[in-house]
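Lab meeting, item 3. Inverse folding demo.
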């Protein structure tokens, strides 16, 4: 089961602010351009838009978007992690290395166990726990973290500063080529 991505939307302005021509275009798009798959889903679609249409400015709605995780993207990301792991000497096992990447990307939450101090606990990127949108976002956050001087020093402390960046970009170039980008 793929995890849905929540999308929060807000009605920004009253419909009175729109011209009748603009409203006509919007109605045509949302009711003629997009339809429910059958009568039941068409009714749900129209009810959904009726709620938005009648909402006051500032009212918030949540949409749950379910998109299958992209197998090619997932493999490209996991390949990048594997190549990075193999190119460094600090971590002896892949899982602690992945947790370091997740922590650097901010992919987790602070938790307190048994009254002890707060501790950052990385979240899972498994298919059932991480949507496609979230996976893409955590991937970009990891790449941004990897480019920081802190991460570069941790990955390759024996290399001089400019060489660390070159090493990372070499691994990232391999990732792009593997993805067919």
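The presenter then showed the designed sequence:
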């Amino acid at each position: 089961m793929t995890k849905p991505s929540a999308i929060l939307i807000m009605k920004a302005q009253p419909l009175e602010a729109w011209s009748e021509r603009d409203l006509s275009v919007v109605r045509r798009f949302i009711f003629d351009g997009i339809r429910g798959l059958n009568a039941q889903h068409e009714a749900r679609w129209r009810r959904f838009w009726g709620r938005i249409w009648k909402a006051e400015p500032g009212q918030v709605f949540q949409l749950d978007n379910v998109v299958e995780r992209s197998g090619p993207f997932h493999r490209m990301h996991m390949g990048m992690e594997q190549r990075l792991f193999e190119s460094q000497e600090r971590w002896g096992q892949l899982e602690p290395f992945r947790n370091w990447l997740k922590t650097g990307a901010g992919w987790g939450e602070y938790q307190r166990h048994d009254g002890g101090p707060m501790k950052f606990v990385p979240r899972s990127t498994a298919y059932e726990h991480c949507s496609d949108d979230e996976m893409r976002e955590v991937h970009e956050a990891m790449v941004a973290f990897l480019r920081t001087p802190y991460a570069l020093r941790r990955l390759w402390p024996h290399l001089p500063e400019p060489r660390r960046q070159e090493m990372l970009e070499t691994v990232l170039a391999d990732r792009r080529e593997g993805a067919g980008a």
